[in-house]
Amino acid sequence: MAADQVNEERETPRHIGIIMDGNGRWAKSRGLPRMAGHRAGTKNIRRVLREAADLNIEVLTIYAFSTENWGRPQAEVSHLMRLISQSIRNELDDLDANGVQIRHSGRLAGVSKYLQKQIQGAVERTKNNNKIVLNVAFNYGGRAEIVDAISQIIAEGTKSDEVTEDLVSRHLYTAGLPDPDMIIRTGGEYRLSNFLTWQAAYAEYYATPTLWPDFDEEELRAAVAVFQGRDRRYGLVKDS
Ligand code: FPP
Fold first, then answer.
1. What parts of the chain have a pLDDT lower than 70?
2. Is the pTM value of this prediction over 0.90?
3. Which of 4, 27, 124, 160 is the most exposed place for a label (fewest CB within 10 A)?
4. What is the structure's pLDDT at 85?
5. Residue 163 near residue 171, CB atoms below 8 Å
6. Ligand 1 pocket mutation pick from 19, 20, 32 by most atoms within 8 angstroms of CB
7. In whole angstroms, what is the distance from residue 17 CA to residue 26 CA?
8. Right CATH number for 15-229 from 3.90.79.10, 3.30.420.140, 3.40.50.10540, 3.40.1180.10?
9. What was the pLDDT predicted at 231?
10. Which letter, b or e, does each residue of 109-136 get, where b requires 16 or more Cβ atoms within 10 Å of its Cβ?
């Protein structure tokens, strides 16, 4: 079996997180505006999600908009908001029909009331679907998520000696989901960028120079094959 092929006999990741970077550069290299890159990037989510479902991956978390992304030019922020809203409007029936459960990780505060309703509606409508979870990290920051969890834990009157890792995990936006086994970053950078800060503690990291709109089924399979070749030790020593 070639090293870049998925081995059906070996474990595949249950949960993959993707930092979808490189939309702007993809557009620029074609002489197009950045927005065209985000449109192509949005379209790409579909094929990667389909392939992930075929690979029996249980959860795909995509980094759609970070708490830091509000600092981008106003026109780009508005465009990204519109894209997300349009995607929910255009794709929800199909996602639902294909058993995709949509989850949202992030803060709703600060997002338009209309989009808040759309997100909540999509989550509610698909909550019993079980083919694959598409967890959309939107208005998401890993540190903000931990702050929100601590704040909730305190508000619940938890005693200090009752605080455990499990309790914190259960107060994160991702409560109930397995931790990511692998984080993929497209676009050639080697940073986590405040993505799944708590949950990625033991995730395998995979970076590729491929720009997000070009990251296709084959690229996903190659990433999974690399994951299968990794030796996960969780701080322990290897069996002899
Ligand atoms: C990074 O590329 C990409 C983003 C900040 C946004 C990603 C968002 C989408 C693909 C749309 C999400 C849509 C839905 C429906 C969830 P970049 O602009 O930083 O690229 P660059 O590094 O080449 O400039």
1. 1-3, 239-240
2. yes
3. 160
4. 98
5. no
6. 20
7. 21
8. 3.40.1180.10
9. 85
10. eebeeebeebbeebeeebeebeebbbbb
